[in-house]
Design a protein that fits this description.
The protein is mainly beta. Helices cover about 5% and strands about 40% of the residues.
Length: about 220
């Protein structure tokens, strides 16, 4: 993490029976001192209201802890330092507390960089690394003697609660559009979606095509 002075911090967190949260800087541990714990990077006293026998979770700048007899609490990081809990579950957990498991549309539990939402839309297992053949693929396809950018999306399933949208643009950062008159759908089956750009390849100095999945 980056602190308020733009310095990198390599942090580790811990908690135990005393209801406190401890944050240490792995690059500056400060050595053992029997007289005090001043070398601790940060200490939040009594914020857990119970001992900890479970594991925390971290996601998008927020640390989650569930102590014994306590609610699951969220502790946001600000400038590489923990702040007091901003939210908690309505239910409290008994012995041994709770170990949270976090999943999100943008998470990639398989570590392959393919977000959960994309795998869900394609009917793939989120815990398995996706093979190249299972992912959308682009190519130049000739139609009537003219070349067009085309995207093929193979689907093992077609969930009813998401929408697959193929977009095109001449700029990776902005200007993404879809549907007539910008794209034409060649195939739209439960197992495959093929969409073609309407701008001929020779007429465009740069052209990009992508799959966007929306989950209302």
């Amino acid at each position: 993490m980056i602190d308020g002075q733009r310095n990198p911090r390599h942090l580790a967190v811990g908690a135990g029976k005393d209801s406190n949260l401890y944050l240490v800087d792995l690059s500056n541990m400060g050595k053992f001192n029997p007289a005090n714990d001043n070398a601790v990077y940060q200490e939040l006293d009594g914020v857990l209201s119970g001992g900890v026998w479970a594991m925390p979770a971290y996601f998008h700048g927020v640390l989650y802890y569930g102590a014994v007899g306590n609610h699951l609490k969220a502790f946001p990081f600000v400038n590489a330092r923990l702040t007091n809990s901003t939210s908690q579950t309505t239910v409290a957990f008994g012995y041994l507390g709770t170990t949270p498991s976090i999943s999100a549309n943008g998470a990639s539990p398989a570590g392959d960089g393919v977000p959960n939402l994309i795998k869900y839309a394609l009917g793939l297992n989120p815990t398995n690394a996706a093979a190249a053949a299972q992912l959308p693929s682009g190519r130049i396809q000739s139609s009537g003697g003219t070349n067009y950018l085309t995207l093929t999306v193979n689907r093992a399933a077609q969930p009813p609660d998401v929408t697959d949208i193929v977009e095109v643009s001449s700029n990776l950062l902005s200007g993404w559009v879809s549907g007539p008159p910008n794209t034409v759908t060649l195939t739209n089956l439960a197992t495959q979606l093929v969409v073609q750009d309407t701008a001929p390849v020779p007429a465009a100095t740069a052209r990009f095509i992508r799959l966007r999945v929306i989950n209302p």
